[in-house]
Amino acid sequence: MCESDRCPQATHHPLHRQVWADHAENTQAVFLGNPRLSKPERARAQAAFDRATRVVAEIDCHRTRRRGARP
User: Fold this and answer.
1) Where are the beta strands (DSSP E) in 1-71?
2) Minimal CA–CA distance to 20: which of 7, 6, 38, 1?
3) What mean pLDDT comes out for the span 30-46?
4) Which of 7, 55, 61, 70 is most buried by a 10 A CB count?
5) DSSP type of residue 27
6) DSSP H or E run through 4
7) 28, 19, 22, 29: which is closest to 50 by C-alpha?
8) Which residues contact 62 (CB under 8 A, 6 or more apart)?
């Protein structure tokens, strides 16, 4: 997965939302749901999950603000 959330020039649009949501869901199910995952791997998976959910939340927030700004 790209690191577009770390690039100040990148933008995330509603069409990107499902990809990020799927990434968060898969990370949670496959990695964070695995009780045998080592602590370092769990930390990396948690960071990836947090990043993906943050991007989804930002997309949702932006969509909500745009809807509210329309006359």
Assistant:
1) none
2) 1
3) 97
4) 55
5) I
6) none
7) 28
8) none
- Residue 16's nearest CA partner among 71, 57, 70 is 57
Weakest-pLDDT range from 7-21, 24-38, 55-69 = 55-69
CA–CA distance, 29 with 2 (Å, rounded to integer): 20
Residue type, 49: F
Q: Is the pLDDT of residue 69 over 60?
A: no
Q: Are 1 and 23 in contact (CB under 8 A)?
A: yes
Q: If we measure between CA atoms, which residue out of 14, 38, 21, 63 comes closest to residue 1?
A: 21
Question: Which H/E stretch holds residue 22?
Answer: helix 17-26
**Structure-block tokens of residue 48:** 């990836």
- Please answer whether residues 12 and 5 qualify as being in contact, where contact means their C-beta atoms are separated by less than 8 angstroms: yes
The mean pLDDT of 14-26, rounded to a whole number, is: 95
pLDDT at 39 over 60: yes
